[in-house]
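Tutorial sheet, problem 5. The two components below are modelled jointly, 880 residues in total.
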Amino acid sequence: MMQAYLDSGMTGTAVFEFFVRKLPAQRNFLLSAGLAQVMRFLQEARFEPAELEWLRTSGRFSESFVDYLADFRFAGDVHAIPEGTAVFPNEPVLRVTAPLPMAQLLETRLINLLHTSVLVASKAARMVLAAPDKRLVDFGLRRAHGSEAGLLAAHAAYMAGFAGTATVPAAPLWDIPIMGTMAHSFVEAHEDESRAFLDFARSRPQEVVLLIDTYDVRRAARTVVDIAPVLEREGITVKGVRIDSGDLPQLAREVREILDKGGLPHVSVLASGGLDEWKLRDFTDAGAPIDGYGIGTALTTSEDAPALDCAYKLQEYDGRMTRKLSSGKATWPGRKQVWRTYGSDGSIAGDVISLEDDDQPGTPLVEKVMEDGRPLGEVPTLAAARERAAAQLAALPPRLRALEPAEAYPVAVSDLLQRTADEVAREIDRRGHRGEVPAK
Amino acid sequence: MMQAYLDSGMTGTAVFEFFVRKLPAQRNFLLSAGLAQVMRFLQEARFEPAELEWLRTSGRFSESFVDYLADFRFAGDVHAIPEGTAVFPNEPVLRVTAPLPMAQLLETRLINLLHTSVLVASKAARMVLAAPDKRLVDFGLRRAHGSEAGLLAAHAAYMAGFAGTATVPAAPLWDIPIMGTMAHSFVEAHEDESRAFLDFARSRPQEVVLLIDTYDVRRAARTVVDIAPVLEREGITVKGVRIDSGDLPQLAREVREILDKGGLPHVSVLASGGLDEWKLRDFTDAGAPIDGYGIGTALTTSEDAPALDCAYKLQEYDGRMTRKLSSGKATWPGRKQVWRTYGSDGSIAGDVISLEDDDQPGTPLVEKVMEDGRPLGEVPTLAAARERAAAQLAALPPRLRALEPAEAYPVAVSDLLQRTADEVAREIDRRGHRGEVPAK
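Model answer (structure tokens):
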């Protein structure tokens, strides 16, 4: 396709926008995410010599096309809705303005990065809302789909309000707090559970969280009570215990009681094992004495909605607005802006999508973040995105904060955008009816 | 955890097995997959200088532990059920035998690779069964969770019987056929749809498949009839058209008629857009004149079941068999073999899981594939795995080949394994009741 663009000299300026067509039934909002990864990708995107060699010798591509790829550097503009912002269907999360072949080449990877990040950030936000004031930790690398998904998930979850991750490489990359974990195999490898707890505590005295469900939770909790004074005399404090199976609220209550009676009221009770936002809410509602949660699969695979109906679509080419008219997938043409209004209580009240310069009441969400391939000003930090996400979650109307499907947040289309879309459709129809076959 | 193993001198031989605890409700079988990626990972696993430096300066790990990681090379044995084999709950898809810290270090990545590959191969197999004799192509990189997931999916889907992928980097990596695609933006960027078709065909004359649903499918099909003779005179044959939206069987019938009447009976009709195995089966049952399918999101995210309840568990340490007794997650101890029996019609009839040397009737499935960190004999090819998968799908009993949940395939546990498991549980209980606190 790119080769065809180059062959026909179609290198005019193209405008693509990434947006989500509609929310999964189980989501009331999404969080913008993935922009940091996209900006890094755009600055680093290159074809390696081995890749170029393969393309050259595959017999599929012309020499001039491979030469174009060899020189490829992203040199376009990028607009985006900042990470951590609540976003809704049809809102342009990201816009790329660049020569057509350049903007087209990026399509698959931009969708791949943004989709994964928005997906997990939005799932994580539901968990944060379901367990207020609890420490949530991402345990999900193992069942994420490949390694990159696990890293993107660690980033997205932290942005959405998680306290940290067990995915160690996320720490050097983005300075996300990492939380070590202990596996059942560690207990099993020892002949004695108390020996396993002592070994573990002595090797990593900074953060002793003991896994107590390998055999019998109550017995293991009593073992913790037995060994905690031994460790304390060595200057090592047991910080927490973790239960990974069974009736978690009930076990947590019993363990809390065993620990309290054993003089360990400062030891946290953590829970993990097949958790999702619904279970978190149930445990919250039940007042379970659980201080924090490790959350894996449901988070990193966004298990109840593992994909978003999203797209990266051409909205303008060479000064002409474009749109698809495909059944059920028609798009809004042109470069767009989103205007957000707030209620008197500070909660978000409604958005209007307009063409870029068609000012509407409210605050514009789409900002320019890259120009000529370079970041514009400071690249926003993860910490800033995390703060924004916290503020946005706090500003959601109560019905959108609920886990149950709610009445949709109002997103209107400006009159001018509606008229423009109609006009573009009519123009496509007119052109279609010309119907002549152009000669070569 | 590894540091604790090293600190306590727990470097005896450990045996870990990877298995799936139970099937998702929507799966009647799984396909073994991911072994090629695991074997490559095990041969290449190293810590890079920058990673070691971070570990050294993070303040979390001891100098001797980081030195251990600096020298890390996998030197253990690996047993596995070959890729493309139908597998069922509790069957050891992979076994690692290595010093405890070495085998433990691999846990997260092995689960991550095997889980993703088994997940997508098993989903792909359902699609292959639902659309016999159709060409299925993986279109799913964009909505895969990160780039690695997309690559693993291309590999897994091809193994399960897909004809190819649109993920270009899968071709140089594994020699998987790639199928180019044309996007709606290509049509939109041109002022005229027929001009877009001509440009595309002339730039990539080897494989002309035209996307005909950007505006109006029937009109675009008639445009193809108009331009095909023009291209034919230039020596370019239109191979197919693709419909990506709308009522696909109905549109396919109309398009087939337009093409046939227009003298293009050789032009294939392909369909894509939100397809899954259920839609494929409906289209098959309806006799829709569709020759092939592009399948994206449902495949690469395994959308209806995006995770498997799988684990990598310690089954033996230093000659002593181990097991978890956690609620709902108890494991079978020891090094295991799976014995498969076949019915008189050649279909698979039942499996028995036993300890390794406890021979049972049937064919053993678990084979040794690596010794002392090196592949044993020829590394099995993707082509061989693909052949095995085709044979295994053909050997599934009809109820398991159906998309609907079926009566479970019988997987028994040998008497000796059952007695051994009971004995290990009693032994754990005995040790637990000793209850003394070992001194440092």
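Marking note: Residues 107-130 of chain A form the longest helix (24 residues). Full credit if you identified this.
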